[in-house]
């Protein structure tokens, strides 16, 4: 069948909507009619070249939800009409990492960046004028229809609105898990969250859910600071120095228990600032994606070693998507996890590039394409 989808034809470049050929689902695959897709900074990282694309054209989008439209021959566990949220990191359920509850590190993720199917780097599901098109994260959620592996799909209850459920496929899990799993926030903690966009806002609510006594949101954009206060931040300041001083003033000069580093384009400087802001044996969690071409920043080694601090990377919030996506949706249903409030603006597929302009201008917590 054909489907409309937003692709990059060049890097640096902008997403443009084209008519693509979409393959039918094969064994172990599903065709999904997309309902919604979040606009995440990582899509834009591919547009700028911060992250490499496996090939061009590249069909973007990796935070989506939809309804199963067709099931590949012999595919088990899913049926037409099922509601699914995609996990941007596929989960095999069997590798060493999956077996130990680290589904976010599943070995299937190793060849994701090729834009092809992980079991065969020459096997694509989208094409344009006869040429293969890369699928971002194997899912390409900026398409009206997409064909995915069942390893990328998590069945969710049909009463949860997919327009917001899609956010659990990347941004919510990444931010919330960074606080809950990676920073291991404990009741009474003092936590700094640097950068409160679509990821950091969820780190704020994750830290609050974990019982932090103080959550200091740091962002230069006033609208984001004000929003953070409604997501559980107790304080909101414009720069990290002020946040670090505030944390020290509340901890007898020691510093924050943890700092979750979530700027849209992370640098070594941000990580160094985070490390300096935490107390002895405190934790700095690096979440944001940097520019792969220049991304190796200096780390203040004295802070790390002499004060026995912990520097922790975090991918998809160290989550197990098949367990955590349904759990987060249950928290949403019970009014504990905010999802509706994350969505600043809804877009049509044709407005994807506009959505990223709005993200850069600081106008959005999350933009969402609704199909
Ligand atoms: C990113 C992590 C690096 C690869 C692309 C996706 N995470 C979330 O947006
Ligand atoms: Zn993302």
UniProtKB/TrEMBL annotation:
It comes from Pseudonocardia sulfidoxydans NBRC 16205. Belongs to the zinc-containing alcohol dehydrogenase family. Pfam families: ADH_N (PF08240), ADH_zinc_N (PF00107). The keyword Manganese does not apply. Residues 13-370 form the Enoyl reductase (ER) domain. Keywords: Metal-binding, NAD, Zinc. NCBIfam families: Rxyl_3153 (TIGR03989). CDD domains: Zn_ADH_class_III. One of its GO terms (molecular function) is zinc ion binding. This is Putative zinc-type alcohol dehydrogenase AdhD. GO terms for biological process: formaldehyde catabolic process. One of its GO terms (cellular component) is cytosol. InterPro entries: ADH-like_C, ADH-like_N, ADH_Zn_actinomycetes, ER, GroES-like_sf, NAD(P)-bd_dom_sf.
